[in-house]
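Lab notebook, design round three. We kept the backbone fixed and only want residue identities now. Task for the bench partner: fill in a sequence for the structure below.
Input structure tokens:
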């Protein structure tokens, strides 16, 4: 899979223009293609891309079912737009909006209940990597929010390993660092759900992945694609990354 995460970029009109470019260019991709857009784009972009290989993701959903939660958008609302995926646990949401493992566990469950497929993000910060604690951190993130799922629920989960020090910094993880962590993550899934489930789990890499380095990252056996921020905002770059998978 190659998934874009537009983050808080693009007005509705700019988003529609970018989705239209992708619609015209992505015809027979060799992998799943998803774009994560702001909530306000979802309905329009999902309609525009209906019947094409490009699927749509929200970048978040509420941790509550419905009711008096001003400004929030529920998983049911996201699903009603035609979006099929929901990015959850992004480090920006953990850091700036104080999303805890418990909150994320609720969000994942609500997304699944509403037939949305979570793209669940995990990854360590720079200090944790410098202290050699990256494996510990990632394991705790999985245990805190998604290892409670049944094997049946797990089949709908995509993981994205996004080392926080690599996001938007230009400091991409080396292919070796990515492979090492992805293999570790897969071993944890195998311990929990068995080898077959682990082999079938899509684990994306995210963090300064771009048109130049994508092929090298995707060449690793445990790197099943990418979650792309900045480089997903320009159609030619995003298309090159899709081609690289
Ligand atoms: P960049 O590709 O801009 O580093 O962002 C990665 C990311 O956070 C995707 O979710």
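Proposed sequence:
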């Amino acid at each position: 899979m190659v998934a874009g995460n537009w983050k808080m970029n693009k007005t509705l009109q700019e988003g529609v223009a970018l989705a239209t470019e992708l619609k015209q260019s992505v015809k027979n991709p060799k992998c799943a293609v998803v774009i994560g857009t702001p909530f306000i784009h979802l309905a329009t972009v999902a309609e525009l891309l209906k019947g094409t290989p490009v699927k749509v993701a929200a970048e978040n959903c509420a941790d509550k079912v419905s009711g008096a939660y001003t400004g929030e958008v529920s998983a049911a609302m996201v699903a009603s737009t035609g979006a099929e995926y929901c990015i959850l646990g992004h480090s920006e949401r953990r850091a700036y909006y104080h999303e805890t493992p418990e909150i994320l566990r609720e969000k994942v469950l609500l997304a699944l209940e509403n037939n949305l497929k979570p793209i669940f993000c995990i990854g360590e910060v720079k200090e944790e990597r410098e202290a050699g604690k990256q494996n510990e951190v990632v394991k705790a993130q999985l245990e805190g929010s998604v290892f409670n799922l049944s094997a049946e629920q797990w089949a709908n989960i995509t993981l994205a390993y996004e080392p926080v020090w690599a996001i938007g910094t230009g400091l991409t993880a080396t292919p070796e660092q990515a492979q090492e962590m992805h293999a570790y993550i897969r071993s944890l899934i195998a311990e929990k759900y068995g080898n077959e489930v682990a082999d079938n789990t899509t684990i994306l890499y995210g963090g300064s992945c771009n048109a130049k380095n994508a092929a090298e990252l995707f060449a690793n056996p445990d790197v099943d694609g990418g979650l792309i921020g900045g480089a997903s905002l320009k159609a030619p770059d995003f298309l090159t990354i899709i081609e690289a998978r």
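Keep this in mind before ordering anything: The pocket of 1,3-dihydroxyacetonephosphate is lined by residues 5, 90, 162, 167-168, 206-209, 227-231 (CB under 6 Å).
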